[in-house]
């Protein structure tokens, strides 16, 4: 069951409540009977296992898709690099 954080709008008191998803949200402060509001915060996410990082090896079906897009990129980039290699080749000789 998740833990929800609430803060009173009247007294500023904060509290945590363990509730089911189907439970209604708390509405009254147990200290001053004021109005409660839910406090939302960032959630830490941990990716475990393989396949989440670019350096992980991929299956052959996804690498063939990547190869077709990379071959298109290498074709367009090979034209400028060949002209630069041609111009740099005489300078090296």
TrEMBL record:
Alphabetical list of SMART domains matching this protein: CxxC_CXXC_SSSS
Region Disordered: start-end pairs: 52-93
Biased composition (Low complexity): 58-93
Source taxon at top rank: Bacteria
Protein name: Putative regulatory protein FmdB zinc ribbon domain-containing protein
Species per Swiss-Prot/TrEMBL record: Kitasatospora terrestris
Pfam families linked: Zn_ribbon_8
PANTHER family linked to this entry: CONSERVED SERINE RICH PROTEIN, REGULATORY PROTEIN, FMDB FAMILY
Residues of the Putative regulatory protein FmdB zinc ribbon domain: 1-41
